[in-house]
Amino acid sequence: MTKPERHAGCATARSSCGLRHFNESCAFVVRPSVTARSSIRGHRYPRVVGVITSPAEFDFAIRMNEPPDLFELRLDRLVRVIDRLENKISKLHAPVVITARHPMEGGANRLSQLQRHNLLARFLSRARYIDVELRSAPIFVSLLQQARRRNVRRIISVHHLKSTPSSSRLRAQARAAKTHGADFFKVATRTDTPMQLTRLIDFAVGSDVGIAVSAMGIGKLGTASRILLACCGSALVYVSLGRSEIEGQMSLDQVRALSFAALKR
């Protein structure tokens, strides 16, 4: 892509999304030689998180010569095989994020509150990060406190699977996450329309909530949202290691093919 084409693409993104603060850091997407080490809040470039949802993906992750920055273990999806995978975690060549997703936010196997708590507590010693939904944070207070004592970083997340709330509501949720001790606020919303995408990016770009934000879209414009939000300084970029069931989520290979290799440590 030529320089005029690149700037035209950035201008189109600003215009179509209605972004008031969009910056030119999106250039690294088409210029692999440029590393995106700065962002709207001064954070370093995003970390790439490979999501493990099955035994096959777990075994693939172990064999990777060039792993992503982090692996996320979806304990809710792995629960039926967790006993035989537990001793293999040390073979993963990247730090681990653990989560056991709430059923109302996309969690598998309809796990109860107690089952999810016990899974997270069981694997806390193996984790560098723990992800708990905002709705679960008041219930899992002791678990989050234990994570802090162990120097496990806390991600508090919300998943709006059917819509994208207003920027003001997302800011309120981010502030609530901070009160629960979050190091990161992770938000995934439905982005089927340009208006939904605009609201999500305006939140990510325009909101100074005092903690790192990882934002991503799901749906028809999910892929576009993830590229744009990475350009805007989203702290974590989640990718699939196999075939993703999440509309809009890119694979690790796709991210690297799009010159996001500049994001990889």
How would you describe this structure to a colleague?
The chain is α/β, with parallel strands linked by helices and 265 residues long. Helix content is 36%, strand content 18%. It has ten helices and eight strands. The protein has an eight-stranded parallel β-sheet. Helix 8 (194-206) links the parallel strand 6 (184-190) and strand 7. The two termini are 25 Å apart.
In short:
With 265 residues, this protein is α/β, with parallel strands linked by helices. It is built from ten helices and eight strands. The radius of gyration is 18 Å and the shape is globular.
The CATH class: Alpha Beta
Order of helices and strands: HEHEHHEHEHEHEHEHEH
Q: From the 3D structure, determine the CATH topology.
A: TIM Barrel
Going by helix content, strand content and strand pairing, the class is alpha/beta
Amino- and carboxy-terminal Cα gap? 25 Å
Global geometry: globular
The average pLDDT score comes to: 84
Radius of gyration: 18 Å
